[in-house]
Structure formats: C-alpha cells, structure tokens
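Notebook B, p. 112. Complex prediction, attempt 2.
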Amino acid sequence: MLLQGFLKTVRKIYFSHNIVLWLILLVLPVGVSVFMLGLFSSQIVQHVPIGIVRQDDSYLADRLESKLRSSPVLNVKMVCHDMGECEHAVIRGDLQGFLVLPNDLERRALRFESPVIPVYSSGQNYLTNMFATKEIRAVLSAAGSEMFTAQMDDPVKTEIHSVGNVEGNYQGFLGLGLVTALFHLAAMIVGVYVASFPLRDHRVREMLGYARGSRFTLWFASVVPMNIILWLGMIGCYAYSHRLLAPLTLNEFVMTAAAQLFMILACSGAGIVFVGVVGVMRIATGAAGVIGSPAFAFAGQTFPVMAMPFAVRCFAFVLPLTHALKIQSMMLLGDLSMGPAWEVLKVLIGMALFWNLLGAILMSMRWKQFARREAEFEEKMRTAPEASA
Amino acid sequence: MIRRLWKVAFAEWKLMYTDPAAVLLLVVAGVLYAFYYPTPYIHQTVTKVPVAIVDMDNTAMSRDLIRMASASQQIEVKAVYSEMMQAEEAMSRDEIYGFMAIPENMEKDIRSHRQVTVNIFTHGAYVMFHGAIGTAFSTCALTLGATNKVKQIALSKKVPSAKAIAMRDPFPLSIQTLYNSTGGYANYVVPSVLVVILQQSLIIGICVLGGSRAHRRFRKKMRNSPVENETLPYRYFGRSLAYFVHYCSFILFYHCIVYNLFDFPRRGELLPMVVFSVVFLASTINLGMVVSQVFLRRESSMQLFLYLSIPILFLANFSWPSYLIPSWMVAVSYILPSTFAVPAWLSIEQMGGDIYDVAPRLYLLAVQAVVYLALGLLLTRARDKVKLDIGDM
C-alpha cells in the first residue's frame, strides 16, 4: 500500500512530462559540467602572448629573442618599436606582458655591468601572468648562465611536484571543484523546484492523494529520486574529470562518493527549507541562487579559506561545498587522508540530517496549509455558481 | 513621443519595485553581490601558508635554508621533520599545504661541486597554494645555490665577488606588474565578476518581468491599462529605457563607491566609460528581451541562467585565456555580451585604456545590440499574437 503510493507519487512528480525538472535535474548539471571540462581541455597554460621592445640590436639580443620564441609557454606575438606600442597592446588584451631588451645590453653584459631587463606583466590575468613571468625568468636565467659559466652547473636545482595532480593540469586544479560546485547549486535549485511546484500549480491535494494522504510518503517520493539522480550524475561527471589524475582506490572512491552524496542531500534539503520558509518558488529559487552561485568563491579551492576574514570563514564553514571539496582534495593525497576525511564527512552528515529534518517539518506544515487553501478555494468555486443561481 | 516612452518606463519601474522577485534580482542582487563577492578576498594575497620542511641533511647549510624559508612572507614553516612520511601525514591532516625536502648529503654534494635537487611538494588541489609555496621555496633554494655558485666562480676564476655575481647573472630581471601593483587576487577577479553580475541579474530580471510582451499574465489586474497595451515600439523601448537608466546607476555605483571602498584600480575616463555603458547595456537589455520571449514561467529563466553563470564567467577571457578554449566554444561565447564587455571594462577601468584601445570590442557589442534588437522586436511581435493557456507570462 505504502509502496504503491510511493511509486505512483514518484511517477506523477518525475514522469509526467515535466521538462523543466529533467532539464535542471540532469541535462543542465551534466551538460554544463562536461562543457566546463571541455573548456580546460588544453589542461595547461601555453602560448602566452608577449611582446619584446628591442632597443638593442646585438647578437645577444637576437639570441635571447630566439630563446623566448622557442619556449612552448610563450608566444612572442609582437616586436614593438617602443614601450608605448607594447603597453597599448597589453591594454587591448593582445599581449599579457612584454620585456625590454635595453640599449647596449650585450656591451654592458660583457663588461659585467649587469644591465637590468625590465619585464612588465599586465597583472589582470592571474594564470597567464604567473606562467609568463616564470617562463621569462627561467629562459633568461638559463641564457645568462650560459654566457660565462656554461661549464658550471647550478649547485641547486628545484623540482616542484603537485601531489595528486602530477602534471599540474587545470582540469585537476579547477575542473573537479567546478563540477562539485555546479552540482552543489543544482541540488539547491532542484530541491526548491521539487518542493515548490505542487504549491505553485495548486496540486498539493492531488499529490497527497497519490501518496494515499501520507505526507511522509509524499516527502520520500519527492526527495529520494532527485537525490539519487543528482548523485549518479555527479559521480559520472567527477569520474570523467578525474580521468587525467591518478586513479582512486576503492576506499578513496567510497569516501569521495559518500561526501558527494551527503553534500547533495544537504543542499537539496537546504533548497526545500527555503521553500518551507517563503512558500514561493520564485523567491526560493532566487535565495538558492544568491547562496549557491558564488559558493565556489567561498569554498577555498581558488582562494584559500585561511586567508579570508573570520566572518567569511564562518560562512564558508556553513556551505556543504567547502567540506565536500576538502574531502575530494584529501582523497587526491591517497589513503593517508582517510582518517581526517572521516571527521569532515561527519560534518557533512550532520548538515544533511539537519537540513532534511528541518525541510521535512517545514514542508509538512506548508502542504497542510496549501491543501487547506486548495480545499477552501474549491469549495468557494463550487458554492459560487450555486449562490449566483 | 518621449512622454509616452517615459510613461512606460515609469510603469516598469513601479512594477519592478513592487514585485519581490524583481526587487531581489534587479536591486538587491546588484548591491549585495558588490559587497558579498569582494569580501572573501579583502586581504588580497595569500600569506603565511602553513608548510613544513623535511631536513634529511641536518647540516649548517640545511639549517640556513630553513632559516631563509622561515623568513619568507608567503609561507610559515610549521614544522621541521626528519622523514618524508611525517610531512605527508601532516599534509593529509590539512595541517600543512606543502613541504620542501632537503636531500641527504646536500652540503657535501654542493661543496664537491655536484648538483643537488631540492624537491618541493604542494597540495595538488589548490592552485594558489601551488604557486605561493613553489615560489617561496624555490626562491630560498635557488638563493642558496646562487650564493654557492658565486663562491665557486670567485674561487675558480679568481675574480672579486662583485664580478662573480655579474658572471652568474649577467642580466638580472626586474618584474613589474603594470595594472595590479599589489598582485591582489580581488583586483584580478572582482571587476570581471561585477560585469557578469550586471549581465546575469539584468537578463534574469527582464525575464522575470516578462520582457516587452503585452498582457503579462502575472499582471491580471493591469491587463487593461493603457501602458500595458501600448504599441510594440513604445512598449519595447519604454521598458528598455527603464532598465537602461536603472543599470546606468549601478555602473556609477560600482565606479564611485564599490571601487573606492575596496580600493580597486580606478583609471576609467569619462568618454570610454559612457560609450561602454551604452553599448553593453543595449546589448544585454536586448538579449534579455529576446530570451524573455522563450519562457512560459517567470522562474524558468532563473533556473537556466543560474547554471550558466559559471561557464559565462570562464568564457569571458579573464581567467582562462580564449586562445586555449576550443574554437566551437569561442564561437558560442560570441553570443554573450560579457565575452566582449569584461575585457573592455578591464581595459577601461583597470588599465585606463582610451576609446581607440577598446573600440574593436565596443563595435562587437554594438553589433550584438542591433542583432538582438531586431530579434527582440520580431519575437515580441510573434509572442503578442500567440494565445497561451499555460504559464504565467
């Protein structure tokens, strides 16, 4: 009896030509995630456009220019006549930076006068500027050490390793986080939609009818399928974005999947709570958007939480995304992180329980209220023609 | 004619301020996000990142290196371990975000003129930590190497130390950042995001208010009012005028208050700013008018555009360079005003670009505005003729 009611309600909510629901539940989160990963398909920053102001026409300047041209990270796009030309190219966005090979560069270098080579970066693009200046420094330092001390190795060499993301690719740095952030937002929006469309369409009594009058059944039929679909969609997208990194072990996979499940439960629960509080889909969607859209900026993957002001850190702690990203990044480090990750998972479980319980209580009250209103309205409509007659 | 236009514009403002969803999107979002977004980055740069050092050499030279790293502004050495495993465990507990491994026999090898490799490990999930830790540790290790190399040159070539320094590095670099002198993260990210916020809130807001269609179903009581039944051009341009004036005030608010408050570079000149505002808002409003004719329900636009905010931001060529984006995605990005508006705004406001510097992008925004205007008028006309029983718009 209960199961029949549950199945019928699920069919009515999810399989009754509700295109918008499937669009926001599956098509958009998966489509946008794949799109974002495609956007980072080149994986690392290369061919950063730079300019050179050549004030010196010596052999050394030629050699430095050809070394810069042969770097795969840089793309010497312009050789400017003066600094103004290069500067305007930076303002137009044609160049990310430029360097000046100053007058008498070779002569002064040969006389050990250490002529300084000024390098100007725009500062408006964090990634390209960082890569460009690092590469220019590396190329010119290598060329400099070849001048007088070619036979002498540098005593110390450094190698930077990114643990869990060996190639330092941006699908690893940003792609994984963005996929999680998208599903974080999706769960809130879908939570709002599923909880509020019977209110919007005045179908609460109809839905309760399918659920055999049980609000408990209606709650489960509303919540369970969306969370499962979102979770499976998220695991699929995450696996796709993770393919370029070291494969996860079974334990790591289980921990990551559990974190994603509880994040989705917490977010959809929060979306339902917004509906329970305001009772209108439009306003609840707006609230979910205001909180969910910029969540990635607060979650610590781009800019670390530890560098944020205290109040913002508190807000970041309240976001399920912060904890889910923390577990995902811990799992990049291998099995060693399993213990600490479990502690973070407990927070996510707590959030999921809190939001879902609160959502269930509030929605139960809303359904009762809306069912009564619908009954009153129906009664009014029924008695109105009689009265007029 | 102008009176009729203003009458429609005033009616639209009245509707905007009496509809809670419209107020949330067209007023609250623009103001709230302007403070909400820059706040996490108020400290601008990442300093004192917790790190560790694994000292497997344990000599005077390795201790010098540790002292140098401890003095670095970007990192804070939380612990010195003797084994790699300890550092890995600390990183897994999130106590540190990276570590440097000083190899065994480092001092001995350097003194015997053998090259030594110092490995630096950073957490693979955090791009900013990777940069900050890598730079700080590399600088320390390479400085140590440079000091020793200068000594080697001076001794082997029998030259004074000043000459040895010049021989090691014959042309030193001086790296300057032109338009973000502090290297602040907020200076880099927030101005671009503000433009995307303006675009998104305006498009969704227009959709929530039903664009320029007649007989908006959610305004049942006003369906017979003369303003609601104005002829199409007056309805279209009058409502556009309302959004245009409203969002001009937002651009002024950002320029005069938000930029000052958060101390973002503010180099914009009047002429390019005015031209930018006109073409950007014209393009965005007309796009909103086009999109608003597609939806049957007021909240559907929110549900769609909330998902699209992140890709739109990344397609705007400020975070990930457009020449690394697949060409079909670049082609898709040409339908969005933000693709041209974000770089144009950065050129004008952050870099002080003149009208000639930004003209190519402003032309493209103007072309978008004209195309969307034609489409908007056509779609509204078509929509006015169709009778729909479902939805609320």
